Amino acid sequence: MLHRAGQPDSDLPARLADTLVDVRPAYLAPPTLRSTASAARTLRAARWRPLEAPADLGREFHHPRSRIVAVVTDYSNERSQDALIASGPGWQAQFSARVPDEILAHAVAALVDHAENGPADADPEAALAGLAEAGWSGAHRREGAVEAIAPDSLAELRWGPDEDTREPSMRIIAASPHSNPWYAELRGAVPAQLTEAVLAAMASPAPARRRLREVPAGLLQDLDITPAQPRAAAATAARPSPAARAAALGAPIISSPAPLGSDSARRAR
């Protein structure tokens, strides 16, 4: 296992700082400068129309044949705006500023898939079962609601009727004592692909890939960090959707969605 022994980034030798590492759990991996740029490329590749908007309000994209809108805000350490806000008739989804690249990439790929193919064969309930198989406690329906906690207790999920509006709602929050939290909120009649993609990404054991200098020293004690392993075996084990393949086009390897693999919801079909 690689360790930095709490060294600040400036003290790392250049060769070591640029070492590619695999980070688990991926839902605690720090975001990178490439995260929202990669999301915007995915939408452009799928021919979503970008609209001019003030830079501090993010980039707004409209699907050409539906009423789905996505607003992507450029990453910065000081950013307070959400990384992604997506909406359509009767639903809205928000992903906060520090959402990991991999969660964001799978969410955007799912938006593209839904806009092009409609509900298709997405199965959020099977993805929920994937959380249970991954060791999340409470990952099952009880009186119409789910309250699940990750095995390390550093992420939790609530899925059920909103306490005030009673509309369908999902909220995810992940954080360690040594990092700022990130959250996702899905409200209303959210596309099944999007719900499935987020649940499956949270359950997946696939690591996030980063350069060592991108991992804050204070976060090391909460993460399992190992030298990066080839992804060829994982890529052949999974059959990503056309949207997921589109998300990977032109994106740096460390910010492209890694295949969810056999643990994803689609394995149950």
Compact description:
Helix content is 25%, strand content 22%. It has 269 residues and is α+β, with helices and mostly antiparallel strands.
**Number of beta-strand segments:** 12
Global morphology: globular
N-to-C CA distance: 36 Å
Structural class: alpha+beta
Give average pLDDT, whole number.
Answer: 79
By DSSP (H or I, 4+ residues per run), the number of helices equals 7
Give a short account of the largest sheet.
Answer: 9 strands, antiparallel
Outline the structure in words.
InterPro entries: DUF317_SPDY (IPR005523). It comes from Kitasatospora saccharophila. The chain has 7 helices and 12 strands. It has helices at residues 14-17, 35-45, 101-117, 124-133, 192-203, 232-237, 242-248; strands at residues 20-24, 49-51, 59-62, 69-72, 84-88, 91-95, 146-149, 155-161, 168-174, 182-188, 208-211, 224-227. It has a 9-stranded antiparallel sheet with strand order 2-3-4-5-6-10-9-8-7, covered by helices on one side. Strands 11-1-12 form a 3-stranded antiparallel sheet, with no helix packed on it. Helix 3 (101-117) packs across helix 7 (242-248) and helix 4 (124-133) packs parallel to helix 5. The chain is globular, with a radius of gyration of 18 Å. Residues 1-10, 233-256 and 261-269 have low confidence and may be disordered.
Short key terms for the protein model shown above:
disordered C terminus, about 25% helix, nine-stranded antiparallel beta sheet, 12 strands, DUF317 domain-containing protein, alpha+beta, DUF317_SPDY, disordered N terminus, single chain
Which SSEs are present, and which pair or pack?
Layout (H helix, E strand, L loop, with lengths): L13 H4 L2 E5 L10 H11 L3 E3 L7 E4 L6 E4 L11 E5 L2 E5 L5 H17 L6 H10 L12 E4 L5 E7 L6 E7 L7 E7 L3 H12 L4 E4 L12 E4 L4 H6 L4 H7 L21
